Amino acid sequence: MLPQDGSLWLNTGGRPWPISTEFVYLICFWSAASAHSIEALQLAQRLANTHSDKPIVVIGVHQPHFDPNLQRTAALAALALRGIRCAVVLDAEGELPQMFSATQNGAIAIIGPRHNLLGCLTASDPETLESFVLQAATITSTDPATKPRPVPEPQPHDADAPLVQPTRLLPDLVNRRILIADTGNHRILVATPTGVVTQQIGSGEPGLRDGGHGSAQFRLPQGMALAGNSLFVCDTGNHVIRCVSLVDNSVSTVAGMGRPLQNGDKIAGARTTPISSPWDICYLAGSFYIAAASCNQIWRFRPGDETLRPVAGSGARGRDDGHAVAASFAQPAGIATDGECLYVIDSRSGCVRRVTIGVECFVKTLAGGNVDDWGDRDGEGASARFQNPQGIWCDEGQVLIADTFNNRIKTLATQSGVVANLAGDGLPGKLAGPAAEARFNQPIGVSAGGGKVWICDSGNGRIRVLDLLSREVTTLRLDGIAASE
Length: 485
What we know:
Elements (H helix, E strand, L loop, with lengths): L8 E2 L13 E7 L4 H16 L5 E7 L8 H12 L4 E4 L5 H4 L8 E4 L5 E5 L4 H12 L30 E5 L4 E6 L4 E5 L5 E5 L9 E2 L8 E7 L2 E6 L4 E6 L4 E7 L21 E7 L2 E6 L4 E6 L4 E6 L9 E2 L8 E6 L3 E6 L4 E6 L5 E7 L10 E2 L10 E5 L2 E6 L4 E6 L4 E6 L9 E2 L10 E5 L2 E6 L4 E6 L4 E4 L10
Parallel strand pairs: 2-3, 3-4
Antiparallel strand pairs: 1-4, 2-5, 5-6, 7-8, 8-9, 9-10, 11-15, 12-13, 13-14, 14-15, 16-17, 17-18, 18-19, 20-24, 21-22, 22-23, 23-24, 25-29, 26-27, 27-28, 28-29, 30-34, 31-32, 32-33, 33-34
């Protein structure tokens, strides 16, 4: 039923995961490059953990959307970041979905103890899925107390890395500080530009708790935006926006309901409207604009009237330009502003979009390909290619792009539409030195200020710094925090 080649399995010690007649299996089809399918895998894992007294086992089937050679490292990084402990098999040829009647990524096939397909559902209706799975679990008489579920092996990580998959860095050089989303450690770090950590926001334990900086909890925080002395944070794993006061050291939830948007949900007030997978955020003219990755939309949060709603993107996955309501995005992962327009990095289509804000909003593609049309090519406009880019920043007439799976930092001239490599030779690594020879490992966040480009080298768990004068890449040494455990 599933491949028996141990080299295709993750979290199993290099052995194929046995399928026995004593358990009900949730086979979840997912990709490290697909936000909504990762949410489905998390839902399946949460379901099994919640009902640990039931004979339920989760197996992930990873589908490649980009270079198949990156499948293993991308899947491992996604699992480690989210703390997902389940066996995963790599389906490089894409043959398994048809076997299980899975018509889309994010589908969850339920396999009975007789190895028969009981059904294939999606994560869009969690209550129906849970009811179906619990009913299926009654088919077997296995008692998990006497026959425990198999436990996958945890993946080792770089114990010397000071951070765990950092995703964003926000420079606030006026106040001589940088703010780092230490995503895998579920915290925000405040440091000097030279790397001295002065404050930790969040306890480091995953959760959703308001309160003081030391007791508050985040779950996979990513994008950040400053408005005065308030830091607004995309608390991605909790599906909410948090406000961090840098004056009274408090954290509060200001938008979202702590769960993804589901079919039938209504758009209402900021605290009564769910938002799915907010990955990045920027501030423009009194409003916060949010890249809602798994919704394929751009949302707006206005603190003044406490509203939260989509402003661009139909919700369908695509790369259609035009009026914001009819335009489509393909997993917008990053968002930035030049003070007039929004710039969005569309990770699945590998392109840069500009959103004009006004009485009516319009979307225009500036550079890149189309959905799942990936590559690594400089050039003008539609001839340029990226591979799962996730970070974007506006800097003096150009846009900086973290071309994540190509291990490069690129620039886009907003007037000419020309894309050019700025740093990275394209190979994974953590080599410092001249920009063209430097190496990164899946850089996610990019920002600029003070003549430097700051790079969240996520796969290496480090912050890298490109000096724009010397064109040299160095690694920022962080003092004042222990290495991640």
